[in-house]
Write a structure and sequence with these properties.
It contains 15 helices and eight strands. The chain has an eight-stranded mixed β-sheet with strand order 1-2-4-3-5-6-7-8, with helices on both faces. By secondary structure, it is an alpha/beta fold.
Length: 331
């Protein structure tokens, strides 16, 4: 997310602006991942009739499952999925209301998203054990899935994950945080209008990634209708009001499950002073260290000089973490 309303919404859910740090690794050649996604993804029918778009590659076990942050679909993982597929089977998906997937009933809270993931994997006949890999908001969905399906989850990698009660904890050190988040939230309800005024089209429809071929760019634009923004708004509201309660109620030890947390070392929030930024980063790192304690084998690693989208700025770091967990589960 780098422009318009989607960026501001991403700040709210993931905490932090994706930023301007340059990628350390060039993106894959145009069409490589996208061609596979366009031609090889499948619409999996759930028991209630909705359809979730799932794109799987490779062979082997455990199965790696990739879940994205607020407003992002399977394409968020295009810089790492093919490489993971060389080592084991891997599936990315568009959550309900994103990409090619049909919208789901509200509220779009963590319980609903985790239930959709379980139903999708079952309906697609993609059995565990699973290694769950999630970015930002997906931390809630995947941790809840792991708490409720402990026997099916072999390991986890969480990429700059959202944390329980994060905004309360940030506000405790920087009282201006609620005002910043309120300002970031202003555009979503407008883009969720149906029908949407034509004057909003340029604001609400962001450009496709530079590596997307024309047919993928068209799909990317078409997917950003009012349903997409209503879904995003519902996920955001649930994130602010209910997700932390659901996670804290379901929390359990993950025993000796391999667990890697990757923390972006250069995250920032717009409009903060240097002292306020340092205070927010300290809280962010502390929450990730606490999250790593879910497992006796959990670790938190700060990745210097990158912002929120570690898997796009430093895909090599994320791949190394996934392969580390994969090797540990196989041993």
């Amino acid at each position: 997310m780098k422009r318009g309303v989607a960026v501001l919404a991403g700040v709210v859910a993931g905490l932090l602006l994706a930023g301007t740090a340059e990628a350390r690794k060039a993106p894959p050649p145009p069409g490589d991942w996208w061609t596979g996604y366009l031609e090889g993804s499948r619409l999996v029918k759930l028991p209630d009739g909705r359809k979730i778009n799932l794109y799987c590659e490779g062979h082997g076990a455990p199965l790696v499952v990739l879940d994205s942050g607020l407003g992002d679909g399977a394409s968020s993982w295009r810089m790492v999925q093919d490489q993971i597929a060389a080592r084991t089977r891997v599936c990315a998906y568009d959550r309900a209301g994103y990409g090619r997937s049909t919208p789901g009933p509200e509220p779009r809270d963590s319980r609903a998203l985790a239930a959709d993931l379980a139903a999708t994997l079952q309906a697609a006949r993609e059995p565990g054990p699973y290694i769950l890999v999630g970015h930002s908001l997906a931390s809630f969905n995947l941790r809840l899935f792991a708490f409720e399906h402990r026997g099916q989850v072999a390991g986890m990698v969480l990429v700059d994950p959202s944390a329980d009660r994060q905004f309360d904890r940030m506000t405790a050190v920087v009282p201006r945080v609620p005002d910043i988040l309120k300002a970031a939230d202003v555009g979503l309800p407008l883009c969720a209008q149906s029908p949407r005024p034509s004057r909003l089209e340029k604001v609400c429809v962001r450009s496709a990634p530079a590596d997307a071929p024309p047919e993928a760019a068209d799909l990317y634009a078409q997917a950003q209708g009012p349903d997409y923004y209503r879904t995003q708004l519902s996920e955001q509201i649930a994130f602010e009001k209910t997700d932390s309660k659901e996670l804290m109620a379901a929390r359990r030890s993950l025993g000796t499950m391999p667990l890697v947390i990757l923390t972006a070392g250069a995250n920032t929030m717009p409009g903060l002073s240097a002292d306020e930024t340092a205070a927010i980063r300290k809280v962010w790192t502390t929450m990730h260290e606490e999250m790593a304690e879910l497992s006796r084998r959990g670790v938190d690693r700060v990745v210097p000089d990158v912002t929120h989208y570690i898997h796009q700025q430093r895909p090599d770091i994320v791949l190394n973490a996934v392969f580390e967990v994969l090797d540990a589960t196989r041993r």
